[in-house]
Request: fold
Amino acid sequence: MKTYERIYKIVKKIPKGKVATYGQIGQMLNLNPRVVGWALNRLAKYKPNTKGQKQDNIPWQRVINSKGGISTNKLMNIPLGLQQLLLEKEGIVFNENKKINLRKYLFKH
DNA sequence: ATGTTGACGCATG
DNA sequence: CCATGCGCCAACA
Reply:
């Protein structure tokens, strides 16, 4: 099983209304956080997907950085503000600095 | 086989 | 608070 598949598997377990950080997921799988970011980036980049593996229904928006902020806003792939919008639709509240309260929303496994 | 690329995180100034 | 710097490592080309 590819590493990115193991990452997707964990991401799918994050409940609606909760989030996980790249570092947190990395810790669960004993991977560098960058690899987690790489795997999610892969979703947007290789959308049609190599090998017909199922990579739909992956709630990528529920993964944020360790400061409680959004890391996708400078990417060409993803529309500006999309991730925050998706999270807000799940009931997550952002403060005036575009950060969320990790104490409140962090997914504990 | 080899070089490059990040949706990171932490330390430091 | 902001800005760099760099270690990290799977996948890709």
Q: What stands out?
A: The longest strand of chain A covers residues 20-21.
